[in-house]
Amino acid sequence: MYFLIVEDAEKTAEQLRKGLSEMSITVDVASDGLKGLAMAREREYDLIVLDLMLPGIDGFEVVKRLREGGSTTPVMILTARDEVHDRITGLQLGADDYLVKPYSFAELCARIQALLRRGQVVQQDEIRVADLTVNFFAHKATRAGKTLELTPKEFALLSLLIRRAGEVQSRLRIAERVWNLGFEANLKIVDVKVAALRAKVDGPFEKKLIHTVRGLGYILEDR
Hints:
This is DNA-binding heavy metal response regulator. Residues 124-222 form the OmpR/PhoB-type domain. This protein is α/β, with parallel strands linked by helices. It has 2 domains: 2-118, Response regulator (Rossmann fold, 3-Layer(aba) Sandwich); 126-220, Arc Repressor Mutant, subunit A (Orthogonal Bundle). 41% of the residues lie in helices and 21% in strands. The chain has 8 helices and 12 strands. It has helices spanning 10-21, 33-42, 59-68, 84-93, 105-118, 152-163, 171-179, 188-201, and strands spanning 2-6, 26-30, 47-50, 75-79, 97-100, 126-129, 132-135, 140-143, 146-147, 169-170, 210-213, 217-220. Strands 2-1-3-4-5 form a 5-stranded parallel β-sheet, sandwiched between helices. A 4-stranded antiparallel β-sheet has the order 6-7-8-9, with helices on one face. Strand 7 (132-135) and strand 8 (140-143) form a beta hairpin. Helix 2 (33-42) runs parallel beside helix 3 (59-68) and helix 6 (152-163) crosses helix 7. The protein is elongated, with a radius of gyration of 19 Å. 30% of the residues are buried.
């Protein structure tokens, strides 16, 4: 999953980024409205968490311009503005939900899950391919019942591959989703990290699940 946080309060943005990252969600952060709008137009996000009181243009204007441009990305407004007319304005402009600060992170997660279900982008708690199981909320991966000792980035990489099991993931897409790197990056890091992940996921087992598709990228599937 790939989220965008548009929030000018550095501490709040970092708390959100850290909490969501621990759920294996890749997070981009924009600190003003214009930058957030530009990023939302440039990349395909699964969800946008949007503050209202922003430099440049405010959150109302961001969501208004996104909807006018045809974007259907779910938008969660997260703000200290708790007046009823602000909530009505945000929802009428096209936001999908409105949560007032201070907030419970557990409630935020529950609302996010509801938005993703509504948009039919369901994030399963657990996915199994052959004898490999990944539980995203427990942040745990097992193969044949044995726990795999993965680094946070290895877990994020495995999460991307298993969520898209049966689909080839290009090296560039992996770099963007796992390391937030663009086309100018040295993509050899992807090959190195996939090799390290393979050693843990496939190394001790006869059946291999992570495969190279020459010239295209990598795929996780039960062949």
